[in-house]
Amino acid sequence: MTVVYSLKNVVKERLIDGVGFRLVVPEIQISAQENIALVGHSGCGKSTLLDMLALILRPDSSDEFDLHPVGGDNHDLGKLWQRDKQSKLSQIRKQHIGYVLQSGGLLPYLTVRENIELPRKLLKLPDDDSIDSISRVLGIDRQLDKLPGLLSAGERQRAAFARALSHRPSILIADEPTSALDPITAQKIMAVVMEVIRGLKITLITASHDWAHVYKMELRTLKQEAEAIEDGKVYQSRFTD
């Protein structure tokens, strides 16, 4: 199976309320069509790692940070960040990655259809039945002409997934996408999403603080360990295979 992400000694440091935070990834490999979960408590670095994988957040250092999306070229992301190749990183992100935020992130002044169309318009993809097709599968085809504010929380997250998948990316990244939903709605949405990504042969990387939820979805988990170092002045979190 093709390795999509290959990370070695990737580090990101931040200062939070006067205490240093250091995220360390000694070594991780993620293969095409794998379903991966980052599991850990709030503040352990799950969102930070997802943002780096989504090419939104720059790592401070890395020995290896490669991306080889299915159907695309191999990219040395570490070197692209070092050379500040923002336009190249943006193009890779737009073409190969779909990202679902915890809040959904739909633009409130656009209709549901217009929100879902955004990735395709940015890539100048031709109009076809992609929007109607993905909306039917996710059960929001009757909501396309509404503004997001008129939808339920569950419908907004379905629309967020539809937007992230509308351009057929090879990688879907989701940051605790159902944490604001009741357990039954969350389970129904993720069951449909898992069917879609398996059908499209997409790699899924998601974050969750709910071990039971991850277990039910049969996701491979990345282990997270935390410790205080430098006399308690730095909180270090590590994710490993």
3D structure, described in words:
With 241 residues, the chain is α/β, with parallel strands linked by helices. It has one domain (3-240): Rossmann fold, CATH 3.40.50. 34% of the residues lie in helices and 29% in strands. It has a 10-stranded mixed beta sheet, with helices on both faces. The radius of gyration is 18 Å and the shape is globular. The two termini are 17 Å apart. The model has no long low-confidence stretch (mean pLDDT 91).
CATH architecture: 3-Layer(aba) Sandwich
Under CATH, the homologous superfamily reads P-loop containing nucleotide triphosphate hydrolases
Give the CA-CA distance, first to last residue. 17 Å
Kindly name the structural category: alpha/beta
Molecular shape: globular
H/E order of the elements? EEEHEEHHEHHHEHEHEE
Q: Whole-number radius of gyration?
A: 18 Å
What is the CATH domain class?
A: Alpha Beta
CATH third-level topology: Rossmann fold
Percentage of residues in DSSP E strands:
25-35%
The whole-number mean of residue pLDDT values reads 91
Helix content: 25-40%
Largest sheet composition: 10 strands, mixed
Q: How are the strands ordered across the major sheet?
A: 5-4-1-2-10-9-3-8-7-6
Count of helix runs: 8
